[in-house]
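Researcher: I'm preparing a figure for a lab meeting and need a structural model of a single chain. I don't have an experimental structure, so a prediction will have to do for now. The sequence is pasted below. Please return the structure as tokens so I can convert it later.
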Amino acid sequence: MRRVIFGSISVLILAAVLLVWLSGAFRHGDLPARGIAPEAASDNPYKNEVKLTGYLIGEAPPGLPEVLRALNDKLKQDINATLELNYIAWDQLASRYSLLLESGENIDFIFAADWSFYTAEASRGAFMPLSKEMLRSYMPRHMALMPEEAFQATLVNGQSYMIPTAAQERKINLALFRKDIMAKAGLSEITAFSEIEPYLAEIKKSYPDMTPLNLDSQFDLSTPYGYLMAEQIGWPGAPFDSGDPSAQGIVGDMDRNSGELWSMVEEPMLSVQKNAARIMKDWYDKGYVNRNPFANQVRSKENFCYGKSGIAFGNSNDLVQVFTLCREKGIEVYPFPMLYPSGTTSQSSWLNNGVAISANSRHPERALQALDLIMQEPSYAYLAYYGIEGLNYTIESDGRIGLPEGVSAESNTYPPDASGFWFVNKELFPPMAVWTDSYAEMREQIDGYLKPTTYLGFLFNSGNVKTEIANLKSISIEYAQPIYIGAVEDVDTAFVRLAGQLKAAGIDKVKAEAEKQAAAFLQGKQ
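Model: Understood. Here is the structure written out token by token.
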């Protein structure tokens, strides 16, 4: 009898312990349950306050603390959640992005894009699968606006792992020149990037504190080289296999749309690269390029208006502040687009800016709800993109976005497009009153430059060749990146060495895999 009583007590104790554990597991998200969270099924889905951890790309603007407080006040009231934001610096993107997702750290959401390793990370399970049903439940605003083709573009092996923007990006890559220096160099316009030496030489001669090409270690490093390639062929901006602009890999001609793929060290890409490399070497030898971009973390666009860099590189969205700041300093800017030989450039894919839920997220449903507000609810989108009204921006009487009295582009602590919330619905925003004439004229021309291309939306699945792609990246750092900036003794010798190393690293295997997947992609478009 005593054993029966003790046995019953033991069972009751075990059951109680199990209930306590289950309660804590649900509360803290330790169970791998997905879909509708336990609290979402209750009468009050926001009963428990949660802290959401997010990662964006770039650098936090000085005014982020104030903006984040305002965002958190709104989120706390609407969905009982707060945000903790972290940033991955441009020069750490390639090395840190994947490691963060592998670390097991609780990350609720992270910026995702086709140029930011989306396919590779989705293929290895770093992101949470997202069904239409889940998105409709927790992101109704966004799903009401997002086209079906945008959702289809996110599929990797038939499954979506990211939330793309609801409207396709309308932007082009730009290089900004100073009109005063162009005039001194005898240039009234620029028709080819390969013909800008008079501009570079004038800076070297007359502006001792300015570096003609002051490149940083991440964004700028391969950009002038890319401009020189784009003049000759429809350079896609990055190899299809890795999506890394500074790596060697497999590419196609986005201008001719033939569908043919090549390794970057076989013809015709080898000749295209060598032509670009010879120009970069000439510029490097003449002192037009900073000696060690690998150690520089300051982008050219951040130095341009301050007289430290002769050219600023970026795109038509992230350079708007540069146009305005230069005008405040009395500098007129000449924008030069990166275009293919046909005078056009590829339309951005649906995956150019987006956000993913980490597979380690403890609160995926609440993260989706917060993103729905930030991406589509105007009061949230303005706050995330422009900052605090009256402090960072104002709405002018004509409806345009302006700057508060006493605030300039230089003193604004939360410049537009600088916070990393690039996935908000920019269609919600009117024009800005601070746009310069040259910027407004450039924006009017964008639609005429953009065209769909054969491989627009092609997502390479690296699962079968991830080791080889990692090897190609390592080889590129050591053997290709010095070529990009012109820091080699002999171009032909440098490419013989690079080609041999890439072949040993498995570039032929990567090409075979890319051709197989590209054929399936093209077949699916018919």
